[in-house]
Every structure is written in structure tokens, then in C-alpha cells.
Design brief:
With 328 residues, the protein is α/β, with parallel strands linked by helices. The protein contains ten helices and 14 strands. The strands form four sheets. The chain has a seven-stranded parallel beta sheet, with helices on both faces. A three-stranded mixed beta sheet has the order 12-9-14. Strands 7-10 form a two-stranded parallel sheet. The structure holds nicotinamide-adenine-dinucleotide.
């Protein structure tokens, strides 16, 4: 029996594939490579390049492999782009996502682990954020994930499809083999590393007047290895007949942008020029998870998500994988 991993050539997907295979799981990857990297996957992994909404391709994959479950990472995930091109996001993440779910149900697959996001909460009504907090996204990207959560819930009622929707906070860090490389890169830690390497003239800090101790926004960073392991636990939960659920995945601790930059300085020993710019509209001052429910339901706790380990792993990976062209 195989696990279909959509978006498995992307950042979090490729690490999850690595961890699944280390546990002896049979994995099949579907990715259109709009962002992902074929080289992030071992050559012997069955790989299909295509869109999650391609029903004929899904039927072909189901013919070639006996699918047991799907871990659904594939999505477009640039918040800013989703604001300027909402249609692109609803089309890719929701419309194609619906096609994927229809195909899975048609093929008899009834277990799905879904990549959701803390962006579904929007401006948080309390810190730390629990799963009970109101969800009211502040951008189209967050809405696409919100709608997919609702769709999964309705598919459970209608077709008995069991799912775990994992609401990630900020994924970061790397394994020896797989790390983060998006084009363009918008995430803080890879960009601070680029500044440390001189590939960026300075790290841009968007606002230093937030109601936080140093004035910069605070985020919850979770090591990609911990994230990947939560997916495996979610899969095991569904295999045990566990019920569908929505779970936060974060460390429960927050660090400001300036604290992250300082930690990168310590780990790399490099100078990191900082350029303060205007705050971005809609950026909350704090996003910190309450991960207690994931512990209760999955027995999951972050094991390697201290900021120094995250930065160290990302730095080591970057030194081993120099970029051909630096993002501007
Ligand atoms: N990185 C984070 O901090 C974070 C936080 C919250 C949620 N998420 C979610 O986690 C998932 C993975 O994030 P990531 O950082 O690894 O992103 P990523 O862009 O590295 O990976 C996504 C992969 O999906 C593929 N893809 C996109 N649309 C597709 C489609 N229609 N058909 C086939 N393949 C498609 C891309 O080519 C890419 O390889 C995404 O759904 C994202 O929204 C990420």
C-alpha cells in the first residue's frame, strides 16, 4: 500500500518523504514542480510530474499503486501574491484541491493529512492560539486553506473520509539532504542566511514599532523535522481509526525578527546588515501556537525545535547547497 504525497518535491514535502521512507513506508510523489525540486527526491521514488487536479493522472497513479492515504502538501503559498492574484490561489489550492479530493474518494482513499496554516486564524484573538480560536483569514491564501478545511469536514460527513488538518506555524530548518529553497524566497530564516552569505545586501525588517519588546513581530518557528514527524503520527492516528481533527503545529514559543537575526549572527559568526522598512499591512504582531492538542491527540511534541538547532541545520544545509543565483 502506498502513500500519495502531493507537493512531495517541495520543502516540507521532501523532508516528510525522507522521514516516511526511513520508516519503511512506500511513497508516491505527485508534484508539478512549479516550486519543488526533483533532486530533493531519491531517484527510486515513484514520481509523477503533474497537477493535483488532473483526474486522468490520478486514475493512472491509482492504477499503478494501491493508494492507502494521501498527505496533501501541494499548494501555492505566497501570502503577498495571493492578495494581488487571488484567482490564481483559489484555482490552484481550492479548485484543483477539490478535484484531488474527488479523485481520492473515487479511488477509495479515505485517509488524508492536510497542510493547513496558522494564516486561517488571521489576527489572533488570544495568544497562544488554540484550535478553538476564531478563524478569519486576512488574505486569500489563508482563505484557500480555510475552505479546504471545510471541504474535508464535509467529505468526512458525506463519504467517511477521515482527515487531520495540521495548522503549521513557521516551518524552518533542514535535514542533511533537504532544505528550504523557494524562488523567490519570502521566509525570514533563509533570507537572513542569504544576507549572512552576502547574497542579499541586507535583511529587510518590516516594521520596528509593533507592541513587542523590541518592536519587531514575534513568530513561532517549528523545525521541519518535527513537522514531518507530526504527519507520520497523524497518518498512524488515522490508521488506528482515529477521528478527523484540526491541530496546531508550533513550538509554543515565539521569537522576534531581531532575535532570529541575532541567533543567525551567533551561529554563522557573520555580519548581517539590517534595513528597517515600513510594516506590511495585515502582519500580526504575535503568532504563537498552543500545541497542547497535538500532544493530546497524536502524542506529538517538538523535539528539535529550539531556535539554535533550527538555524544551525538551515545554515549547514545552505553551506552544502550554494545557490546558483541569489534571490534579489
Ligand atoms: N512553509 C511554511 O512555513 C508553511 C506554513 C504553513 C503552511 N504551509 C503549507 O505547507 C505546504 C508545503 O509548504 P512548503 O513550504 O513546503 O511549500 P513548497 O512550495 O516548497 O511546496 C509545495 C509544493 O507543491 C507543489 N504544487 C503546488 N501546486 C501544485 C499543484 N496544483 N499540483 C501539483 N503540485 C503543486 C509545488 O511545486 C511545490 O513543490 C503548503 O501547502 C503550504 O501552504 C507551509
Amino acid at each position: 500500500m502506498a502513500i500519495l504525497v502531493t507537493g512531495g518535491a517541495g520543502y516540507i514535502g521532501s523532508v516528510t518523504v525522507e522521514r516516511l521512507r526511513a520508516k519503511g513506508e512506500h511513497v508516491v510523489v505527485l508534484d508539478d514542480l512549479v516550486q519543488g525540486h526533483r533532486l530533493a527526491l531519491d531517484e527510486d521514488i515513484p514520481f509523477y510530474q503533474g497537477n493535483i487536479g488532473d483526474r486522468a493522472l490520478l486514475a493512472c497513479i491509482a492504477r499503478d499503486h494501491e493508494l492507502e492515504a494521501c498527505i496533501h502538501f501541494a499548494a501555492l503559498a505566497y501570502v503577498g501574491e495571493s492578495v494581488t492574484q487571488p484567482g490564481k490561489y483559489f484555482e490552484n489550492n481550492v479548485q484543483q484541491g477539490i478535484e484531488l479530493m474527488r479523485a481520492l474518494v473515487h479511488e477509495g482513499v479515505r485517509r488524508v493529512v492536510f497542510s493547513s496554516t496558522c494564516a486561517t486564524y488571521g489576527e489572533p484573538e488570544q495568544i497562544p492560539i488554540t484550535e478553538q480560536c476564531r478563524q478569519w483569514p486576512k488574505n486569500p491564501y489563508g482563505w484557500t486553506k480555510f475552505f479546504m478545511e471545510r471541504l474535508l469536514d464535509c467529505y468526512d460527513t458525506a463519504y467517511g473520509l477521515k482527515f487531520i488538518a495540521l495548522r503549521y506555524f513557521n516551518a524552518a530548518g533542514a535535514t542533511e539532504k533537504c532544505g528550504e529553497q523557494h524562488e523567490p524566497e519570502t521566509h525570514l530564516i533563509p533570507n537572513v542566511l542569504s544576507a549572512a552569505l552576502g547574497e542579499l545586501p541586507a535583511i529587510r525588517v518590516f516594521g520596528n514599532n509593533y507592541p513587542t519588546p523590541d518592536g519587531t513581530p514575534i513568530r513561532d518557528y517549528i523545525h521541519v523535522i518535527d513537522l514531518a514527524d507530526a504527519h507520520i503520527r497523524a497518518l498512524e492516528h488515522l490508521r488506528r481509526g482515529g477521528k478527523s481533527d484540526f491541530l496546531n503545529l508550533g513550538s509554543g514559543r515565539g521569537f522576534s525578527v531581531l532575535e532570529v537575526i541575532e541567533r543567525v549572527r551567533e551561529v554563522t559568526g557573520r555580519e548581517i546588515p539590517v534595513r528597517i522598512e515600513s510594516p506590511r499591512p495585515g502582519d500580526p504582531s504575535r503568532l504563537i501556537a498552543d500545541p497542547a492538542k497535538a500532544k493530546a491527540v497524536l502524542g506529538w511534541e517538538p523535539a528539535v525545535s529550539d531556535l539554535r538547532s533550527i538555524v544551525r541545520s538551515a545554515w549547514d544545509w545552505r553551506l552544502r547547497h550554494p545557490r546558483v543565483s541569489a534571490a534579489g
